[in-house]
Amino acid sequence: MGITTDEERAAALRRMKRVATGLLVAMAAVFSVAFALQDRYPWLEYVRAAAEGGMVGALADWFAVTALFRHPLGLRIPHTAIIARKKDQIGESLGGFVQENFLSDAVVTEKVGNLRFAAAAGAWLARPAGAERVAREGATAIRGLLDVLDDEDVLRLVESLARQHMLAPQWSSTLGRILETVVRDGHHRQLVDLVADRAGAWVAANRETVVGLVSDRSPSWLPGMLDHLVGDRVHRELGKFIAAVRADPDHAVRRSVDAWLAAFAADMQRDPDTIQKVERLKHSVLGDPQLRELAATGWSSVKAALVDAVENPESELRRSFVRAVADFGRRLSTDERLAGKVDAWIAGAATYLVRTYRGQIAGVIQETVALWDGEETSRKIELQVGRDLQFIRINGTVVGALAGLAIYTTASALLA
Q1: How far apart, in whole angstroms, are the C-alpha atoms of residue 144 and residue 138?
Q2: What is the DSSP track for 36-82?
Q3: How confident is the model at residue 56 (pLDDT cuts 50, 70, 90)?
Q4: Which residue, of 110, 121, 159, 164, is most buried by count of CB atoms within 10 Å of its CB?
C-alpha cells in the first residue's frame, strides 16, 4: 500500500536517514580499524582507501541533500537552504512548467481526445442504476436551487420580464392582424355558432322570463291576457330568429358580425383612438395588483409541485426524466456519430477552458507556494521526495568507496 499521509512519509524519511547515516558511521568505523592496522596488515590499505572514499562520498552527498532544505549543521553557508530561500522562484517555475507541459493545447486535445468519454458515459447512463443516480442528483440540485431562490426575487424578475416583453410592445396592431386573419379564414364562425346555440337553448328554457319581460315593458292599460299573448309571440319569434341565424351561413346577422369584426380589426391596426383604447385596456389588465397576487400564488403552487415531483421517485416527471436519461445513454453508446459529436464538443470545451484559464491555474500554484513559509515549504517538499533523496547518500557512499578503492589500486600499481 502506498504512503498517503504526512505521518507515514515522515516515518519513512526517518528510517532512510538512519540507514544512510548508519552506512556513513560504518564506513568511519571500517576506516578507523583499517587505518590503525594497515601497517601490520598491508592489504588493509585497500580497505582503508575504500572506506575513506565512502566517507567522502557520504559526507558530500549528505551536504548536497541537506543544503536543499536547510543550512547544514545550522551554518549559514552560501547557497544552502535553497528551497527556503528560492520558494517564490520555485513556485513560479513550477507554475510555468505545469502550464507549458501539462496545459498546452496539444496535450489537452490528445488526452481528452483519447478518452472516448461519450460511449462509456452512455453505457453507464443506459443502466437503470446510472439513470436513477442522475435523476437523484438532478433532483437534489433542483431542490437546492429552489431553496436558494427568493420568492420575491422571482416575482420581481417575472414582473420585469412581463413589463419588458408584454407591456412595452404594442398589442393593438398585432391583435388586429390576428383578428383580420381569423375573420378572413372564417374561424370566428364556430364562435358565432356557439353563441347562437347557447342563446337558442336559453330562450327555449326561459319562456316565462321572456314573457315576463314583455309584460313588464308593455303599457299598463293593456289587458293582462294580451300581454301574455304578445310575450308568447315574441318568445316564438325570438326562437325562430336565432334558429335562422344558426341554420343560414349567409344570414344578415352573420354578415353584420363579419363586417363589424373586419372593421374592428382594421381600426386596431390604423385608428389611433382604437389603438389607444386597446393599449389602455392592456395596461389596466396587466397592471392590476391582483394579477401580481395571482402570479405569487401561481409561483408558490408551481414551486411546491416541482419539488414534490422531482423528489418523489414515483412521480411522472421523475419517471419521464429517468426514461429520457436512459434513452439518451443508449443513443450515446450505440450511435457512433452522436458519440463522436459529444466527444468533439467535450474536447473543444476542455481546450477552450484550458486555453482561457491555464494562466490562472499556473497563477494559483505560484500564489499558493508564495503564501507558504520558507521552512514549511522545505518540510512539505522534503516529505514528498526526501526519502528518495536518501538513496543519493547511500549511492554516494557506495560509489565513493568504489572510487576510493579504484584510485588507490591504480596509484599503487603505477607507483610500484
Answers
A1: 10
A2: HHTTTSTTHHHHHHHHHHHHHHHHHHHHHHHHHHS-GGG---TT-SH
A3: very high
A4: 121
> If phi over 0 gives left and psi between -120 and 50 gives alpha, with beta otherwise, what is residue 385?
alpha
Q: Which residues contact 43 (CB under 8 A, 6 or more apart)?
A: none
Angle between helices 44-69 and 6-37 (to 10 degrees): 150
| Spatial distance between the Cα atoms of 65 and 81, rounded to a whole number of angstroms | 10
The CA-based angle 133-135-140, given to 5 degrees, is 95
* Close Cβ partners of 204 (under 8 Å, ≥ 6 residues apart): 239
Q: Which of 135, 65, 68 is nearest to 322 (CA)?
A: 135
Cα dihedral 185, 189, 191, 194 sign:
negative
Q: What is the pLDDT of residues 312-369, one digit of tens each?
A: 878 887 888 888 889 988 888 888 888 888 888 888 888 888 888 888 888 887 787 7
Which grid cell sits at 377?
A: 515549504
Lookup: cell for 329: 445513454
pLDDT tens across 390-414, in order?
Answer: 898 999 999 999 999 999 899 888 8
Mean pLDDT of the chain: 82
- Average pLDDT value for residue range 4-33: 89
What does the alpha-carbon distance between residue 134 and residue 122 come to, in Å, rounded to a whole number? 12
State residue 46's pLDDT score. Answer: 92
End-to-end CA distance of the chain: 56
Burial (CB count within 10 angstroms: exposed 0-12, middle 13-18, buried 19+), residue 48: buried
Dihedral sign (CA 41, 46, 50, 53): positive
Contact 206, 234 (CB under 8 A): no
Q: And the C-alpha cell for 257? A: 358580425
- Let me know: does 61 contact 23? Beta carbons within 8 Å: no
Count of alpha carbons within 13 Å of 307, Cβ hemisphere only? Answer: 12
By the 8 A CB rule, do 61 and 397 touch? yes
